[in-house]
Amino acid sequence: MSSAPASTVRVAVIQHEPVWLDLEKTVQKTIRIIEEAAQAKAKLVAFPECWIPGYPAWIW
Predict the structure, then answer these.
(1) Domain CN hydrolase, which positions (predicted)?
(2) Where are the alpha helices (DSSP H) in the chain?
């Protein structure tokens, strides 16, 4: 069995806060961050859980 050549995948792990309680601005911020990660040649961008809703836990 032959082995495939190893490949590298650049991953960007995001540690930012969303724009709390503002979906539109959070989406705009998300796009900017993804664009920056792409310029750094990231192939995968990982955001925190519940990033897009942008609502703090106390609101539920």
Answers:
(1) 9-60
(2) 23-39
Q: What is the pLDDT of residues 23-32, one digit of tens each?
A: 899 999 999 9
Show the domain range for 21: 12-46
Number of domains in the chain: 1
Query: Which of left, alpha, beta for 54 (phi over 0: left; psi -120 to 50: alpha)?
Result: left
- Answer whether residue 29 is part of any domain: yes
Q: Does some domain include residue 27?
A: yes
C-alpha 34 chain-centroid distance:
6
Q: Which two tokens stand for residue 21?
A: 């309680």
Cα angle for residues 47, 49, 54 (degrees, 5° grid): 90
Contact indicator for 45, 19 with CB cutoff of 8 Å: no
